[in-house]
Amino acid sequence: MNQKYFYPPEWNLQKGTVIIFPKKDSDWKCCFDEVSKHYLEFIKAIAKYQKVYLILEENIDIDIKNVEIIKNVKTDDTWARDSLGLTIFKNGEKYILNYQFNGWGGKFNSSLDNQITETLFLKNFFKKSKLINSSFIIEGGAIETDGKNLLVTETSILNRNRNQADSKDKIESSFKQYLGISKIVWLKNSYLAGDDTDGHIDMLARFGENGEILYFLDEVGDEIKRSLPNKKYIKLPTPKFCEYPATYLNFIFVNRAILIPIYNIPEDIEAYNIFVEIFPNRDIVKIDSSIFIQQGGSLHCLTMQL
């Protein structure tokens, strides 16, 4: 019997997707009506394939099939990937691994966001799951797994604004214990202009379900290749979208499909065609993310799979 915890790759069958709807009195107040419209389109696209669990504080009437509204959960922002716990398994039982969140190194308010997972747990949202709290400050967007290998960046996890550099061994032990991986690749090259996360891996490199590794910056791809030389590497175009940290790697897996961010620029066509070629057995759905990226993130940053 397997005695190890396991964090499934995102292409595994999912129960659903958690999304936090924006609030008027937040960073989205600059463009609340526009971003709300794009959120609803994004939610509808996910709900076509699997259930959406929508954390909603505003008094907004949302009538979309396959969407469950979650009330009475206080939030600071909308980046569910980084504030919610990870769904892990051990011997068929489900656990929620709750790392701490401090607003990407204290850059933004995070006291409410850091309580979301425990609040949901107390509301019995996770049903029969058990909660595992960790004192390490690690965001969901900072880790990328294929079930065996883990890609992480030193700048986002070993940054002194989160964890001390001398915590590396203990953090590795936590990853190996709870995520079920055997090899950890720490990347030094992680700079992306305009990125508040200090270099989240989900903006830089992602695993595909057939052993591929997708990337778009040469220095990132070259560094991973040295550690994982026997993988198939696929380079995506670099979206040139103003000064924002736009990337096509911030896509999400849902059941039977992949939703990819687009920015209404020429590079969108090349990126879409690459995804169609790589994932022939999944629908490839384009989601206009030009408004999302103006706050520094995109589809993967906005969601957490269950």
How would you summarize what this structure contains?
By secondary structure, this protein is of the alpha/beta class.
Molecular structure report:
- Helix content is 24%, strand content 25%.
- The radius of gyration is 18 Å and the shape is globular.
- It has a four-stranded mixed beta sheet. Strands 4-5-6 form a three-stranded mixed beta sheet, sandwiched between helices. The chain has a three-stranded mixed beta sheet with strand order 7-8-9, sandwiched between helices.
- Helix 7 links the parallel strand 11 and strand 12 (232-235).
- The protein has one domain: L-arginine/glycine Amidinotransferase, Chain A, CATH 3.75.10.
- The two termini are 24 Å apart.
- The mean pLDDT is 96.
- The chain has helices at residues 32-47, 80-83, 103-106, 116-122, 154-157, 168-179, 218-227, 267-278, 299-302; strands at residues 16-20, 51-55, 67-70, 86-90, 93-100, 130-137, 144-145, 149-153, 183-187, 205-207, 212-215, 232-235, 252-254, 257-262, 283-288, 303-305.
- The chain has 306 residues and is of the alpha/beta class.
CATH topology call: L-arginine/glycine Amidinotransferase, Chain A
Which architecture name does CATH use?
5-stranded Propeller
How are the strands of the largest sheet arranged?
A: 3-2-1-16
Helix segment tally:
9
The CATH homologous superfamily is termed L-arginine/glycine Amidinotransferase, Chain A
Apparent shape: globular
Mean pLDDT: 96
What is the oligomer described by this structure? single chain
The top level CATH class name: Alpha Beta
- Give the tally of β-strands: 16
**DSSP strand content:** 15-25%
Largest sheet: 4 strands, mixed
Sheet/helix structural class: alpha/beta
Could you tell me how far the N terminus lies from the C terminus, measured between alpha carbons in angstroms?
Answer: 24 Å
- Estimate nothing, just give the exact number of structural domains: 1
| Rg, Cα atoms, Å | 18 Å
**What is the helix/strand order?**
EHEEHEEHHEEEHHEEEHEEEHEHE
Low-confidence stretches: none
